[in-house]
Structure formats: C-alpha cells, structure tokens
Amino acid sequence: MGVDQVAIAALNPLIPTTDSVPLVRKSPFQKLWADKVARTALVVLTMLYLCAGFADPLTPYSMYYNDPDLANAPPTSVYVQDEQGNWTWPYVFAVKRSFDPNTFGQSYTEDHSKRYPVKLFIPGEEYKIFGLIPFNLHLFGVNSPARIFLLGADVNGRDNFSRLFFGAQKSLTIGFLGLFISYPIGILYGAISGFAGGITDNIMMRIAEAIMSIPSFYLLIALAAILPAGMPGGQRFALITVILSFIGWAGLARIIRGMVLAIKEEEFVYAARAVGMTEINTIIKHVVPQTMTFIIIAATLQVPSFILSESGLSFIGLGIQQPDASWGNMLKAALDNVNDLLEQPWLIAPGLAIFVTILCFNSLGDVLRDVLDPRMQGIS
Amino acid sequence: MKRAIATLAVLTVMVGCRPRPQTEQNGATDHTKPTTQQPVEGNALPSTVLAPDPGPFQGAEIKNADGTITEGLLSRGEVGKPGGTIKLSTFGGGPKTFNPWTASDVESSGFGYLMFEKLVDIDAWSGKYYGRLAKSFTVSPDNLAYTFTIRKGVKWSDGKPLTVDDVMYTFNEIIGKGYGNSSLRDVLLVRGKFPKIEKLDADTVRFTTAEPFAPLLNGLVVPIAPKHIFEPQIKKGRKDFHGFWDQNTNPSNMVVSGPFKLKRYVAAQRVELERNPNYFMVDKDGKRLPYLDRFVVQIVPEQNTQLLKFLGKELDMLDIRSVRGSDVAQLATKQQALNFSMHNLGPDDGSVFLILNMARRTNPKTKKPYVQTFKQEWFNNQKFRAAVSHAIDRQRIIDNVLKGVGTPLYTAESPAGLFANPDLKPYPQDLEYSATLLKEAGFVKKDDGKLYDSKGHLVEFSLSTNAGNTTRDGICVTITDELKKLGMKVNYQPVDFNMLIDKLETSLDWEGVVMGLSGSRIEPYNGANVWKSNGRLHMFDQRLPNDQGEVLAPDARIWEKQIDELFDKGATTLEFDKRHAIFNEFQQIVFDQQPFIYIESPLDVTAVRNTIANYKPTKFGIFYTPMGSLHNVEEIYLKQPAGQPGAE
Amino acid sequence: MSIPVYMLKRVLQAIPLLFIISIMSFVMLKMAPIDPLAHLRANPAISMSAIKEEEERLGLNKPPVTQYGIWLANLVTGNLGVSVQGADVFILLMQRAGNTMLLSSLSILMTWLIAIPAGIYAAVYRGKIIDKVFGIISAIGMSMPTFLLALLLLMFALATGWFPIGGLTSQDYYDLDAFGQFLDIAHHLVIPVMVLTFVGLAGIQRQMRGNLLEVLRAEYVRTARAKGLPENVVLYRHALRNAINPLLTLFGFEFAALLSGAALTETVLAYPGLGRLTLEAVLTKDMNLVMASLMLGAVMLILGNLIADILLKVADPRISLD
C-alpha cells in the first residue's frame, strides 16, 4: 500500500507545482539531520544495524548456545552493590532451577555462595568476523556455571538477549534484500511496458494486475508453503526474501509504467528527440532521476512492511524456522503463552524491537518525503 | 542529543542492575521466581485424584408421559439440580459435520458422542465394556458370537422407538456398506470379513465373527443411527451421504438418542446443544437426566484465546489438551481467586517418540536405497538405537518443554492404559552406558570428539519434526545436544507437517523424526496399523504398496514377525489376563529393540469452575472433546438455583 | 466516454484478468506440497481404504489439468463446489462474508472518520505539537504487527473485563430482542475494529496531510487567499476537493480489502470472518474453498478500482476515463 500512496502523492498531475527558488539551498541530508525526529530515527537505526552486524562480539552467547538446565529462566540480576551496600564491580550469582511437583511451579533460586563478576572482552564461543576471521572475544560475559541471561532464556535454555541481536540480522536485512530484488524487477518491467506501449503494454499490465489482485497475504502463504521443506536456514531465509519481493514488484511496475507513459509525452522528450537522442536514452536520463526520489521514499516505507510480513509468516509457522532466530519466530514463541506475558514481560522484547525498527523507518520515510520532494524545495 | 544518549545509557544500566542482593530476611520478593507467590495449599493440584468407583451401572424403569415404560439407566452420581447452561470450548475450526458416521476428525466425532448413544460403552472407572443401549450381552463359549439384548422402550428424540432394527441398520447398511467413514467398517473386519449380524427376536441381535476377535467390542463402541431417518437418505446414494447432517443442516431435522441434541450452529462461533427430553437415564430420585438445559461449545481457533476466555469467565471449563504444560503453573496460582479447581488425570494416551529410518530397501523409482547403506547399518543396529535411547534425558525434556507436566515414556503402551507392562523399568539418562554400547557396536569416538563407525564414516544424520510446534522443537533441540555429547552430529530441521507425512508414508526420504501418535487406553489392537509389518503407519520401516496395491513385508525382521504373531494372537484371544500377557510380551520386544524410542507423554490436566458439580474425572473416562473428561455429562449440574441460565 | 459504457468496458476487460488469476491461484495451490489428507494419514484409527475413498471423493488422483477443468466447469454453472469437509463452499462464504463485511466497513469508516480530520489538522498546524502527536500515534499504529496488537488488546479486555474476549455474538444472542442483539454485536466489535482502525489510521492520515500541504501551496490557493476569502472557505471549498483526489484511489484498494479480511487478527480474536476461513483453507489446501475465496478477493479488487476511477471522474470532470 505504501508504494501507491507515495506515488500518488508525488505524481498527481492535477496539483500544479510551485517554482520559487530559495536563496540558500541546504542539502537533503542536512535537512534530514535538522529534523529531531529523523535524527533520532537515523541514530537508532544505525545502532540497530551495528548491533546486527557485530552480533557475535557484542553478545555473550551464540545463537545456538543453550543451557538446558535453565530453560525459561528469568533475566539474570546483575548486582552492583554487595550485601553491605558498598559499590562493587557488577556481578551475578549462579542460578538453580527447582520444581514443585504439587503445583508444577518452577522456581529459580540464586546461589549466594559465590559471586561471578561480569568480565569484559571475555573469551567465549568461536565465531568468524565477516565470516572470514576466526575470533572468540565477546564484549561481556561471565564464567560458567553462572550465566548472564539479560533477557532470560527461552524454552530451550537459549539466551534471549543474544538471539535478539542475531534475529536483528535476519529481520533487518530481509527488508533491504527484498527491496534490492523487487525494485529492479519492478522498474525494468514497468519501464519496458511503458516504453513499448500498445499490445505488449496491455498484456504486461494485465499480468501485473493479476498478481496484484490476489490478496497479498494469501499469496505470501501459498508461496511460503511451496518452499521445499528441510532446507537449511540460510537458504530458506533467502527464498522467503524472494517471495516477499514477489509481492511488491507488480505495484511498482504499474506506477513506473505510468511515469514512463507520462514522460514519453513531455515536451523535453520531443525536444530531445529533435536533437537526435534515442528514446531509450531520453527515458533513462529523465525517468531515472524523477523516480529516484520516489524510490528512496518508497523504499523506507516498504522495508517495514517486509518486516511485518516476515513476522506474520512466522506467526503461522511458515517463516524462518527454529533453531535460527528471527524476531518473528521469537515473537511467536513468546506469544505461544500470552498469559505469561504479564509475569514475564521480557518475553515481549522481539515485539518491541520490531516496533522500534518500523517506527524509525516510518519516521525517516516521512521526513525524507518532506525533504526530497522537489516541490517542497522552497520550504525549509 | 548527547543528553538523550546519556539518559539511554543510564536507563539501560538501571534496568539490568539491582542495588544489592536481597536475602529472605530483608523480606523482599525474590524476583528470580517467575511465580511470585509461594505455593499455597489451596492452589496445589490434586494429583490423579479419582472419585471412588461407584460400581457398574444399574438399570432403571422410567415411566414416560405417554404411559410407556423405558428400560433405562440409573445414574451413579449424586442427585443434582436441574437447569442451567454449561459453557465449554473446542479448539480448532469447529465440527465439520454432525454426522458421526461420516466424521473423520476428532471434533466432529466428539459431538457425535454427545448426541448419540452406543450399543456398548467403556466404563469410566473399570475400563471394561458394559451395555449402554444393550441391557446385557453375552459371548458364546467359542468366542464367535456376541448376543446383545437391547433395552426396551428407549425412544429417539422425536418419540419414535429405538429398536434392534436401528442397530441392525446402522451396522449392516451404514457401516457395513462403507457409507461415510469406512474406517468404522474396517475396524470390524475379521480376516477381511464383516461380522454376520442377525436379529434373533424383537430385542436381541447377534454378531458372529469368522474367528475369535477380541477388538470387536471396541469397534462396537460406535453411535447407533435412527433407521427411519437414514433409510430414505441412503436410498439417494453414496455421494449425497457425505453432506447429510453436515454443518449447515437444519437442527430440527436431527433425531438423537443421546443426552443432548443440536439446537443451533452459529458458523465459526459456537455450537449450541439443548437437552433431549427423551433421554433414557434417570437419577436416584427418578428425575430424568440430563440436568443441564443447554450445552454450549464455543469454537476457538487459538489456544491462547481459549485460556483467556476461561480466565475471563466466559468458559466454565478447560478440558484435556486445552491446558498446556506451560499453562499449568500459571493457572494453578489463580485457582482460589477465580474459584476453579484443577485436576490431574494422569498421562495422556498419546506418545511422543523418536524414530530412525530402518528401511533397507531400494526406491524403485530412483534406484537408490531409501537410506544410505552405511547409515542403514547404524539404524539397524540395536545397540545404536539403545545408545540413543539411553542418551536422552527425558525428565529434563519434560521440565523444559512441558514445564514438568508430563511423564517420561519408555513403552509402547501408555502407562495410563489397561495393558501397560508393569515390569518394564524406566531408566534415567546414562551417557556412559550409551558410550559403552556404541563401543561394543564398533563405533569409535576419536580425539576430535566426534563419533565414527567401524568403517570410518562420521556419524551424522538429519532429524526432523513438524514445524511450528514448540514442544517438538524443544525436544529435538535437546536430543541434538545430548547426542552431540556422544559425538554424533545431528542436523535438526523442522519440516512442514504435510511434508513430514509425505516423507514418512510415501517418499521415505528421512533419517530421524520426532513424531507423536494418539493411542488407546483400552484396546492395544488399535495400534495394529502401526505395529504390523505391513501396517499403514509402520513408520520405522514403512512398506509401500506394490504395483498390485498390496503391502507385503518379505524382509520383515524376526522380531517384527514376532510382533505380528503377538498381535494376531492378542486379537483372537478374548480373556483379559491372557491378552495382557501377550501384549506384555509385545511391549518387552519393543523395549528391547527400541524401533520407537519413546520420550514422553503429557499429563492430562483439566480446569473446572467450582460451580460445576458431579465432575468426576477418571483415567478411562476420557473421550473426544467436547465430551472430554465429562464421561458422565448427563449427571453434571450447576451449583446454582435451577432455571438460571449461565451468565454472559 | 459515458460512465455506463466505461463500466461495461471494464467488466469485459476484467474477465480475462479473472481467468489469469484463477489459473495462477490454481497453479500455486497445486505446487504447494500440502496434502489435504495429511491429518487423516497420521491418525492410526483411519484405515487405508478410508483414505483412498477420500482421495477419490476429492478427485485428488486426477491430473491437475482435469481438476482445473472440473473446477472451471462447475464455476460456470454457479457451483462453487464443496470443501474438503463436505460443506457447500458458497454457503460457507456467505456466512462469513457478512461478518467480514461488517468488520471491514466499520473499520474503514472509523479510520476515515478519524484520519481525515486528523490529517487536516496536522496539515493546517504543520510543525506544531498536534502535528507531531498525530504523527506519532499513527506511526505507532503502523509499526505493530496486527496479531501482536490484537493479543495485547485481548489481554486488556481480560484485565478490565469491559469487553468480551473475541467472537462476534455471545451465547445468549438468540434469546435477546433486536436491540439487545445489536448491542451484543456492537460490544463484540469494539476490539476488532480498534485493532484494524489503529493499524490503518496512519496511511490515510499521512496521505491526507501530505496532499493538503501540497495543495495549500498551490497558486490557486494563494490567489484565493489574495482575494480575501476566509481561511476555512479556502480550505474546505477549494483545497480539500483537490487534496481528496488521491484518497479516492486509495478507497478503491480499501474496498477490495473489505473482503480479504485481516486473517491473523480474526484468528487471534476468534472472529468468524472470511480472512480466517481463507487462511485455514490455504493451510490445509482446501482447493475449492481457496479458489473461491481468492476469486472473491480479486473480484472485489477489480470492483474497487472501478469504483475509485468512477469516483475520481465524478469528483473532477477534467479527468478523462481511459
């Protein structure tokens, strides 16, 4: 939906344009930075992407690490004072789980006999930086058998905090990957269709409309169900991204085609033709800049919808599968027992993460639209 | 900007840290406990508290309004107050049909139990068969003929008499000719032949089988249909039968014999049942049952929503399988506040297990073996399977995944069932024993910590289960971990349910799978499809039909053949003790050979509001929901003044 | 070209489109390795012959082209077929369509009622607090997964006891009089409508705001102001009419969404709607049901676009159709 809204806003031919030129031109980025909301959004997003990119060193545990004796543990309490009230270096206690067979209640008690200080740059599980260089230092952690589960553990004893970071890797990239796949296809398809005109245009547009007419959610599910089962997590992730992009391109194609059609008739095209430029060159030279703005804006608004779609798919069980972490499937696991949310509010962390990310993208997109719209250039 | 970052940093630090460790003397609540209270006595779960056995049903003579006498049943519970509505729920999409003879899914069959009476039924306390519509029944000395005497004067809800003709029609025409769900017929086939059914006189009917067949009675636990309604319908042909009495049927068309009949089906929302005034049961004061006026079942697609509805007082009860392990502890703390009690009915009859693909054949289409040859050798090695079984820490799985609400399983028969073998001893996790077994089998754990077979192959195989199921997922992750300690590399990938079934039953393209199956507490022969070598669900070595459509098992192992013989013997022996011994032997073979590595059975826990009276759950009185644990649904009453419908 | 002729032309154009859609849907369905009988197969109580009979009955053994042909032939005669369970598809759809229509129309109404004034305010008072507040509220709505919002509201309902927990009618519904029934349904609709409205607010509100902002800068607006017209006349008589334009196109999409329903929200809230029905059908590969639902969705979309285009023409005579 976002795509069409923005396009209409950007290109409604009925609304006449202004053409006042300000005295001082600020670059788009400066304008963006000036707006407080956009600034916050940019900073948060950058931090999120950094966290995702450096998930391995920043988190105490890997995505698969689990301590089965501490499944469903609550967040580890980190103490900064000792029993006498003096300030000390932060430390934790080891936690034991016990079980009351009468009420089936599980309780987690701290063993106060030994303190485990929080260590910085602690050696831990091995990982590869950028998939190449093996390394094993983690920003913080504690010695075994104590654990530092800042957001508690899931049903398999895996650290929610660490998996949140790893989940960010999937959820944050799925948006952009989807974009990089669907947009080129959409643009190319639309441009060819608009340029060719006539029957080709007609047929191509009918097919695009057909795809658009299938309610996207069911298209998504049907496609996800087609995925051959039992493929490794990485492959599945890639294919889901492809599927998500399959949803978006048709709408974009239609709009681009509309733009191309309009531009074809513009005076400067005739002028260019008179000068001797071929039509393709003309169109590329003129279509691309005009659509650039639109694409950037639409992109920021499309990424959230991809993230939401992924979480929707995971909710049904068709998205990224365990044991890989994604915010969608972590949220699903949390919502499997929605009752516990009141007592264990940390379980909602993936939902919060999704929320914050999308909020940032939307805010950014809003401001970007204000900033990049050529007709708004006169207003600062 | 800087301020913002600073604030954020401080907040993060504050959230994670706590000023000082609180001890019990400080009186502070220990935030490391997820449940914030100490367990209160009133909030404890009564574990397997069963009401005492009231003895078998007695008959009762009921005087009808028109002067006739019905030979009915006398209720065994306390006398209650008539009136009121009970609000239950069913989880899923709701019943697909109200025709119990077409129904192939659990929900629809469940409604059938509420609306139609059966010839014989299973006693909730003893687990034995007793005559329901039949006043009595005898088995001939040669074990071939079962003679049933039907109670006189029983009426359908439209006033017409229920007679032997209805019984004959149901079995001969509807079931025998395979209208609707033909599994009802197949379960009664003895040596491929349907029993001969003869009407001996106006009240007596006799079933004769080709050879002694102990599971026959179990197959007769099936609703009886009204001949006067079904005969005209059957004449219309097979195709129309499927839609007869489907979801959208007009309730006034339905004629029932059970305690309740369909009043209204509100699509995708709820099913409303109302009292059948012609029901053939009375209480000790002679009042006709059921007590309840209305029986309302809401259709809820999400388990969470069901739980929330119960907490919000929109439901009176959460029956078996509606209370998940993870919900139990939470619910238990609310018992006093919300005025309900929880009941632990013991292990469920279903099981969850790990199977390894033991097929040794070649796929005729691809010309390649179903399982790689060297892996075949591992999976077919009994010591390998035993090692895997001993490496699994079942209790920890139950603690983690089911939050303790389950019981470890080692045997093919549910510990809750009549035929469980008491001699089979459970064994805890023993990694050393597993390592020893593997060494004996020729496997070597090398210095890199990985396990290799005698030919030098790394022991690596794939493990699947159905996607989207947190329980199974948790089990697989734990198994992967434990087997890693033995040096095995297990690649775990959840797979869509349909795909999994296809792999298990058609393509045989799997190596390890964690699956679950439902079982029976009463009749072990119901597992024939699974245990017979040519069974449809003989999953660990699934044989496929050949070109003629037959399923043959020429490569059956010795112990598979032994199991086949034991099942045949168990089917043709009628005496309970002898059958028990036969099936004990079968369980021993499974225990030794471990083709199914059993893991756990969840516990059946129900939550019932204290306003519901006469609720007496038992181990054997568990049927498909919405009847569920309400085996005595006709005796259930509300502790409220009569005439008041349930609120909201 | 006159409107009736235009409509006819569009309807004729729609037919090949629907045909393509049906083929695409069918192909996708068939490619998904979902077996409608998987649950039967996994049940030890069901015999092999019962499964074979079901396969026969559902025509699962026939080649896909034949299955499609059968479906198409049935469709032409007005027979939408039966679902895997045996219920008539047409009846199933009708039962649920009404419910979804109710929910969707109410949600769209509420969304527009709130979003348009909000957008206007935000545009007129651009940069002020109220603009930011509306911006944030609508941003929150857009940023949450619907099922999460639905679950949270459900818990809110539980905590306060003010609203029923999902569903559409309470069990006493048929015992109530007409007014009571009306209130009962209204009571049940509060949470579902809140979820869908909240989620849809943002789009319309921003759209309105953005359009109005652009229009307010236009030359003819400056002219109107220069002429001395009072501000609200400028706003409501001149600017708004132009700003509303793109929203009409949006309305087309919203109309289409009327019947596709919000599947996840309906599932979580146990709302008996079309979305939930279609979702269950897709997941169990209930072919007839899925095809019928998808075709219905497509028809609604095409209708919606048509209505939007006609509304555009009515609102602004300068637009030439075609």
What's this, in brief?
The complex is a heterotrimer of chains A (380), B (648) and C (322). Chain A has 380 residues and is of the alpha+beta class.
What does this structure look like?
The complex is a heterotrimer of chains A (380), B (648) and C (322). With 380 residues, chain A is α+β, with helices and mostly antiparallel strands. Chain A has two domains: 76-148, no CATH class; 163-376, MetI-like fold. Chain A has twelve helices and five strands. Chain A has helices at 2-11, 28-34, 36-53, 55-58, 160-196, 198-213, 216-226, 233-264, 267-275, 279-316, 327-335, 349-372, and strands at 78-81, 87-100, 105-117, 119-129, 133-141. In chain A, the strands form two sheets. Chain A has a three-stranded antiparallel sheet, with no helix packed on it. The model of chain A is unreliable at 1-23 and 376-380 (pLDDT under 50). In chain B, strand 19 (444-445) and strand 20 (451-452) form a beta hairpin. Among the domains of chain B are: 15-34 and 349-429 and 457-602, Dipeptide-binding Protein, Domain 3 (Dipeptide-binding Protein, domain 3), CATH 3.10.105.10; 99-108 and 116-243, Alpha-Beta Complex (Dipeptide-binding Protein, domain 1), CATH 3.90.76.10. In chain B, the strands form seven sheets. In chain B, strands 15, 16, 17, 18, 21, 22, 23 and 24 form an eight-stranded mixed sheet that branches. Chain B has a four-stranded mixed sheet with strand order 4-14-12-11. A four-stranded antiparallel sheet of chain B has the order 7-8-10-9, covered by helices on one side. The radius of gyration of chain B is 28 Å and the shape is globular. By secondary structure, chain B is α+β, with helices and mostly antiparallel strands. Chain B has 18 helices and 26 strands. With 322 residues, chain C is mainly alpha-helical. Helix content of chain C is 76%, strand content 0%. Chain C is built from 14 helices and no strands. The longest helix of chain C has 39 residues, at 178-216. Classes of the chains: A alpha+beta (380), B alpha+beta (648), C mainly alpha (322). Chains A and B meet through helix 3, strand 1, strand 2, strand 3 and helix 11 of A and strand 1, helix 8, helix 9, helix 12 and helix 14 of B. Strand 1 of chain A pairs parallel with strand 1 (17-18) of chain B.
